[in-house]
Amino acid sequence: MKTVAVYPGSFDPITNGHLDIIRRGLRIFDELIVLVAYNPNKQYLFSIEERVEMIKETIEEKERVHVDASCGLLVNYVKKSGATIILRGLRAVSDFEYEFQMALINRRLDREVETVYLMTGYKWFYTSSQIIKEAASLGGSVKGLVPDIVCEKLREKYMIGRKG
User: Fold this and answer.
1) Which residue among 32, 37, 101, 145 sits deepest, i.e. has the most Cβ atoms within 10 Å of its Cβ?
2) pLDDT higher than 60, residue 164
3) Helix 129-137 crosses helix 148-162 at what angle (to 10 degrees)?
4) Is 155 a catalytic residue?
5) Is 66 in the active site?
6) Is residue 123 annotated as a catalytic residue, yes or no?
């Protein structure tokens, strides 16, 4: 029986830290679904379609990794997809409290769904989509922190914002 995990996130944008979790997750699970989550209460730089496309362009093991999007309850998506595991990355202690709360509520909503955490690789410990967007918006180079396609898309977004 193959094990399928769902790796949810906003991925606004996807970073090399996210890709590290995906690569390492594939050592544990047979398949991964990278789920681009949409929260109507959040403001995003990239549309859901742009985020899905950037992820698809950066994924190496396309036969074992699927990319999807959802705005519903995560445990419902996990169940519907045939997965039983939520994969999450942890960076600092500050991530732990939020992730712990989410795991508890997901467990309360569906006892069949487990949450598995991978510690972020040391190279990506202080990398986050938010910090990358801030640096890029101020003209800083984020090369090496995100895939090349994401560097390009960030440059395009912020150059458009500077015109006029």
Assistant:
1) 32
2) no
3) 50
4) no
5) no
6) no
Residues constituting the chain: 164
The domains of the chain are located at: 4-162
- CATH level 2 (architecture), domain 4-162: 3-Layer(aba) Sandwich (3.40)
Per-residue pLDDT reduced to its tens digit, 30-43: 999 999 998 888 89
**H helices of the chain, where?**
16-28, 48-58, 74-81, 93-109, 129-137, 148-162
Q: Which of 18, 51, 88, 133 is catalytic?
A: 18
As a whole number of angstroms, the distance between CA 60 and CA 72 comes to 27
**Active-site entry in 91, 107, 155, 157:** 91
Structure tokens given for 60: 């190496």
pTM, two decimals, is: 0.92
**Residue among 51, 88, 129, 133 flagged as catalytic:** 129
The question of whether 10 is a catalytic residue gets the answer: no
